[in-house]
């Protein structure tokens, strides 16, 4: 596995971050203080830092005729993990910015994708590949 990344993001409520990243997403909680929480975000270190107010909201960029929020972050999963997560979130009535769908079906780079916002408004994308060799394929 490649080296895990570290990403620190702003949140306005740590209890909401706990409910979203811990309970809903199933991420294991690491160290914490009254101002931040470390999460095992699919093998990567995500830190939710408490802020008084959120920076500017994500701006949309058109991709596949869909308004993709920028900036955003996420992970690339295998297709089975992606499907399980998409179904879990749908069952939990999670609101999606972009509902789960398959991009490039039957073509190079075929992938599942969906977008959602955490309770603080941070945009996340989850991708799923049946063939991980296609992640950077042209």
Automatic annotation (TrEMBL):
It comes from the Bacteria. CDD domains: VOC_like (cd08357). Residues 6-126 form the Glyoxalase/fosfomycin resistance/dioxygenase domain. GO terms for molecular function: dioxygenase activity. The keyword Acyltransferase does not apply. Keywords: Dioxygenase, Oxidoreductase. It holds the Pfam family Glyoxalase. This is Glyoxalase/bleomycin resistance protein/dioxygenase. It comes from Glaciecola nitratireducens (strain JCM 12485 / KCTC 12276 / FR1064). The lineage of its organism: Bacteria, Pseudomonadati, Pseudomonadota, Gammaproteobacteria, Alteromonadales.
């Amino acid at each position: 596995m490649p080296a895990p990344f570290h990403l620190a993001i702003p949140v306005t409520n740590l209890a909401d971050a706990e409910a979203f990243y811990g309970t809903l997403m199933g991420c294991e909680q690491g160290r914490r203080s009254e101002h931040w929480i470390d999460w095992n975000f699919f093998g990567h270190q995500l830190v939710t830092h408490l802020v008084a107010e959120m920076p500017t909201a994500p701006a949309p960029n058109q991709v596949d005729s869909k308004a993709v929020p920028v900036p955003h972050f996420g992970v690339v999963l295998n297709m089975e993990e992606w499907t399980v997560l998409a179904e879990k979130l749908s069952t939990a009535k999670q609101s999606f910015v972009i509902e789960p769908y398959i991009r490039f079906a039957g073509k190079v780079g075929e992938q599942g994708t969906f977008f959602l916002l955490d309770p603080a408004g941070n945009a996340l994308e989850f991708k799923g590949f049946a063939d991980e060799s296609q992640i950077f394929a042209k």
